[in-house]
Design brief:
Radius of gyration: 24 Å
CATH topology of the largest domain: TIM Barrel
Oligomer: single chain
Number of strands: 15
Largest sheet: 5 strands, parallel
Structural class: alpha/beta
Length: 429
């Protein structure tokens, strides 16, 4: 048990200390109860006359109920970037700084650079500007505090969770007639290299290249991983939603087979960002096909607008979301790699939506960071070792169509197989 003294007990303070330190924490504003407590004690107040294992002199952030402009200057402590300077046992307010990063406080501003899909760009973030995007900084702070003051933070069992965004389950099969044969005609007219392959698949003499799921699940069984597949089931095609229709019999069968052995989540379409009714319909479609309730989600193109996106997901019964990461650069968007509940800043309250941060996505390596497969493999291993060092959840995103046996993807398929073998061995150490 840890006791924390604070003159003011607020929703924000209760949320962050429970999230960081675990449920076995008590907050009191009674100085006598604090002084008489036998156990680890944290003084979170301006009063330095209390005897405590750790004194954190607070800034105002956790005692506020509104969203306001924050002035942040970073400096080094234990060779780590910190901010919200104070004069306690540690020179910064670790609770307020953690809350700022995990609540994504900076993303509530409307004055920020957007990526090509209208999302918060990683270059706006404090983590990018100050050079700590590639480390789970909050965990490193807590490790130093535990080492120096004996305050033990919340524990988590390290695990690896491969996740897959299935944007397009079939490259050529089961699409509308105009797409299937129109694509073949364009291949011929523009002398594209996919003509032969497309024709063979459509005539049934070759397997569809995007159907890599038997190969994936064979590796998952071999290495004892439990993957999660996020499926796009939009009924209307658009520029950003090009999945075959979930009304197609073969597509339904594919989803049902996948759901027999693997966890399934919804991959809300790009169009669903503009209407809650479409999101509701897509969740209902996937639930009907799998005959299971759908409680997991990850946004297509990582569309995430605070607080609107998460409020819509909660309204539709989603319990866990896996969107928290960037679609423009790999790293730790919230500087944290344990699952944690979303805090709704607009209503100043904790919610029951459990967030699962991811640390890298294949598309970022390929299109944004423009790494070669061998370079990406080195980075993937670094992220694995980083998350393992703090006992986090090692979650990453892959796409089935980047793992096809086509000429331009075969090297990525090869390094991914090598990577799963590497982390399987690493997980057993």
């Amino acid at each position: 048990m840890i006791i924390i003294y604070s003159e003011h007990i607020t929703n924000r303070l209760q949320y962050i200390v429970t999230t960081l330190l675990g449920d076995d924490v008590r907050i009191t504003n009674n100085s006598n109860a604090f002084n008489n407590f036998e156990g680890k004690k944290i003084n979170y107040s301006t009063n330095n006359n209390l005897v405590a294992d750790l004194w954190i002199k607070p800034v105002d952030l956790l005692f506020e109920t509104h969203i306001s402009s924050q002035h942040i200057d970073c400096f080094l402590w234990k060779n780590l970037k910190v901010f919200y300077t104070t004069q306690g046992s540690v020179p910064f307010d670790v609770f307020a700084a953690s809350f700022y990063l995990m609540s994504r406080y900076e993303e509530y501003s409307s004055a920020y650079k957007k990526d090509s899909y209208g999302n918060f760009h990683h270059e706006n973030s404090l983590a990018w500007k100050e050079g700590f995007l590639q480390v789970p900084l909050i965990h490193l702070w807590l490790k130093e505090i535990e080492k120096e003051f004996g305050i033990v933070s919340r524990k988590n069992q390290f695990k690896t969770i491969p996740t897959y965004d299935v944007d397009i389950s079939f490259a050529y099969q089961h699409h509308p007639w105009s797409v299937k044969w129109g694509g073949l005609l364009k291949d011929l007219l523009y002398k594209r290299g996919t003509f032969k392959e497309r024709l063979q698949v459509l005539l049934g003499s070759k397997n569809d290249p995007y159907q890599v799921f038997h190969w994936l699940n064979k590796m998952h069984r071999q290495h004892q991983f439990n993957p999660i597949y996020f499926l796009l089931v939009s009924t209307k095609r658009s520029k950003f939603d090009k999945n075959p229709s979930p009304k197609n019999k073969q597509v339904k069968q594919f989803i049902q087979e996948l759901a027999k052995d693997c966890a399934i989540g919804i991959h809300p379409s790009y169009q669903s960002n503009f209407t809650s009714e479409k999101l509701k319909k897509e969740i209902e479609i996937l639930a009907s096909i799998t005959n299971n309730s759908i409680t997991k989600s990850r946004q297509h193109y990582l569309q995430l607008q605070f607080p609107l996106t998460y409020k819509k997901l909660i309204q539709q019964g989603i319990k866990e979301d896996y969107t928290l990461g960037y679609g423009t650069h790999n790293g730790f968007r919230a500087s944290y790699c344990y699952p944690f509940y979303w805090y709704d800043l607009e209503n100043d309250t904790a919610t029951k939506l459990l967030l699962h941060p991811f640390c890298f996505m294949d598309a970022n390596f390929i299109f944004e960071q423009k790494l070669q497969p061998e370079e990406a493999l080195i980075e993937m291993k670094k992220y694995y070792e980083t998350v393992k060092s703090v006992d986090g959840d090692f979650i990453f995103i892959m796409h089935n169509h980047f793992l096809a046996e086509q000429e331009h993807w075969k090297d990525w398929r090869k390094i991914y197989s090598e990577f799963l073998t590497f982390i399987s061995v690493g997980s057993s150490i």
